Amino acid sequence: MEKKITIEICCGSAEDVHIAAACGADRAELSSCLYFGGLTPSVGTVIESKKAGIPVIAMVRPREGGFCYSESEKAVCLLDAQSMIAAGADGIVFGGLTPDRRIDIDLTRRLVELAEGRETVFHRAFDLIEADWKRSLSQLIDLGVTRVLTSGFAATAPQAVDTLAEMVRFAAGAIEILPGSGIRLDNAVDLCCRTGCSQIHTSGGQLRLLDPSEGFSNVVSFTPGVPPQPGYGRTNEESLRKLVREVKGI
Q: Which residue among 23, 61, 175, 187 is least enclosed by CB atoms within 10 Å?
């Protein structure tokens, strides 16, 4: 490709961030509990992740199951944002909605302020908005949000290339458009070419690893039924290296 594409990897641990950096990724979105769509990571995870040498954008999400938060949950978001920044995160990623599925303006403003000039990302809660997306995107621009992570209101970003291209044109550089969901080795370059995006968000592929302490008891269970398979997730280094080489043309 003629232009440089920034590759952001969705990471569920500090180990994932180190793998992403070693494979040539440009940035990490750091969460915990990827099975639930990503929750706020621990302070220790942020500190260890920063040793990988690439920018780390920390998730601020207090619970699974949507994005309409109570006042107590909003207070947790603000406290966690402060902790993520204090731990050295290069930015925060978040998304709050009102019950009628519009952007929570007050929460977003306060989180941008707490970021103290670091990058701020409104995540895929954006794909659930009820209002006209152009109006909502304009609101994020006015609030000073750095970028929006979106699948273009489809199940996956490759299914919404026309919408994503329209978003890039509408944003006109005032806010970054970061396509995410379903981006893989076989569609990453095509998506960038067709949308005009200069960055992508991807897991790069995931493995399931079995911890040595697992599988020895049919009686004791710490996560009954969740997740449905044993083990834990880890970034697939082999598939990520291939994706990075393909996108960067190396």
A: 187
Q: Mean pLDDT of residues grouped by 10 in the chain (250 residues)?
A: 86 97 98 94 98 98 96 98 98 97 97 97 95 94 98 96 97 97 95 96 90 71 63 92 90
Closest among 180, 171, 127 to 145, alpha carbons compared: 171
The tally of domains found in the chain comes to: 1
CATH number of the domain bearing residue 244 = 3.20.20.380
Which structural domain, as residue segments, surrounds residue 44? 6-248
With b meaning 16 or more CB within 10 Å and e meaning fewer, what string describes 87-117?
Answer: bebbbbbbbbbbeeeebbeebbebbbebbee
For 213-241, letters b (16+ CB in 10 Å) and e give eeeeeeeeeeeeeeeeeeebbbbbbebbb
Q: What is the pLDDT of residues 201-232, one digit of tens each?
A: 999 888 888 888 776 666 666 666 665 567 88
pLDDT, tens only, 136-165: 999 999 999 999 999 999 999 999 999 999
**Strand ranges of the sheet holding 56-59, from the earlier edge strand across to the other edge:** 176-179, 147-150, 119-122, 91-94, 56-59, 27-30, 6-11, 199-202
